[in-house]
Amino acid sequence: MQSEVSEISPVQVEVKVEVPWERVSQDLDKSFAKLAKTAKVRGFRPGKVPRRMVEKLFGKQVKAEVASALIQQGLIHAVEEHELAICSEPNLAEEPDITEGQPMAFTATIEVRPKLESIDLDGLEVKHISPKATDAAIDDRLEELRKQNADFREPEPMRGAQDGDRITIDFAVEVDGEVQDDLAAQDREVQLGDDSFLDELETGMKGMKPGDTKKIDVPFPAEHPNELLRGKTAIFEVTVKALHERLLPAADDELAQDAGDYETLEELKTAIRGEIQERLDKRDENELREKLIDAVLKKNEIEVPPAMIKEQQQRMLYEMAQFAQMFGQQMGPEMFDGLGERAERRVRAGLVLGALARLHELTVDDEAVDAEIASIAEKTGKHVAKVKVEYRGERREQLENELLDRKIMAFLKEKATILEEADAPEETAEADATTDGEEEKSE
User: In what order do the strands lie in the sheet with 12-19?
Assistant: First the structure.
């Protein structure tokens, strides 16, 4: 077989293949001979049908099957000979004919990965602000701990319900003039002001006392998951049965001792600051990663095969569907906003980071993976052998990809100039602190 490849674009090639008549004839002979052994033709015993008769009755079918097989073999030959990194099914210009004594020729277009022989990192620069745990954030966490350790009692004298109170209610629900028994509730506890109940109901119940009954209109959005309530206004008839006010403990050493293994309030604050800073550092690492990727992509603009974008979109849709199912949510139209752009960025990042790893020989060996598994075992308290079993097959490959990603990011940090808060212009600080949150993997 002879093949010729010409580039249409960085991500598409035209492949011309010519199969000599000798090969075509040989495959035809084999197919006709095989068919003659099993063909059932009136007047002839199985295996005794003349070749001429087989060709007359089944010639069109056999030629089509031989042509299809030769097309597949010819394309595989061309891909291997020219080392094409294909990413789509070939698109034939037209189906080839088999003509006696003539070579069979055909032309196909195929999408391929772009050839990246270099990645420009010169002058790579990102502006970044590393967040710090603030006193306000620590105070907010302390307030949460005070609420978690609060006591409740009936106010004396009794008063109307307000934020912070815990009330016990019964309610019935009416929709379109019909009482919906399956939506009713008895002895339901509601914590006012904690966003744990419907806003309209919480607002309507404020000021109510035990023994009070009130009808409250609650509108529901058109996309509500309950079809009965979708786009409707339900009438809740609420009866308050009990009311208890929340008594917050003081922020002192006693609170610290109740909250954990701490002796003083200062020890608790130090621990809270460390927890908050750890979360901020993880988020900060992700944000810096995205900025580095964006900076590299900006310096290395490449064309992306449409087939890869389409495949990535399908993968992202599957991930979103799994996420929605896991958390009992519906996939609203906002989840699809910018899906094409996000998919294209993921593909582009995968191609560029993959080329970067190849060109700079960034790899992860078994020793590095085993060391990471040992670290996981130490953190989780599991035996190393058990963790090794857990990280077999696809999960081990995922771990290898994570380690390679870390290695690529460490390499980019070394090459890039990272302007921290003191160096970043004040007017761009807020803009530079945001990213799209995508997680790209090198391919």
Answer: 2-9, 12-19, 104-111, 91-92
389: Cβ contacts below 8 Å, ≥ 6 apart: none
Cα–Cα nearest to 346, from 440, 443, 436, 437: 440
- Sorted by sequence, the CB contacts under 8 Å of residue 43 that are 6+ apart come out as none
Q: Percent of the chain at pLDDT above 70?
A: 93
Radius of gyration of the chain (CA): 34
CA distances from 321 to 129, 221, 226, 343, 436 (A): 34, 22, 19, 16, 19
Mean pLDDT of the residues in the chain: 89
Of 89, 107, 106, 81, give the one whose Cα is nearest residue 8: 107
Confidence of residue 195 (pLDDT cuts 50, 70, 90): confident
Look at the block and give the residue holding tokens 């394309």. Answer: 75
> Tokens 């990272």 — which residue?
418
Cβ-contact 168, 186 below 8 angstroms: no
Domains within the chain, CATH numbers bracketed? 2-111 (3.30.70.1050), 151-247 (3.10.50.40), 279-432 (1.10.3120.10)
User: Band of the pLDDT at 34, cuts 50, 70, 90?
Assistant: confident
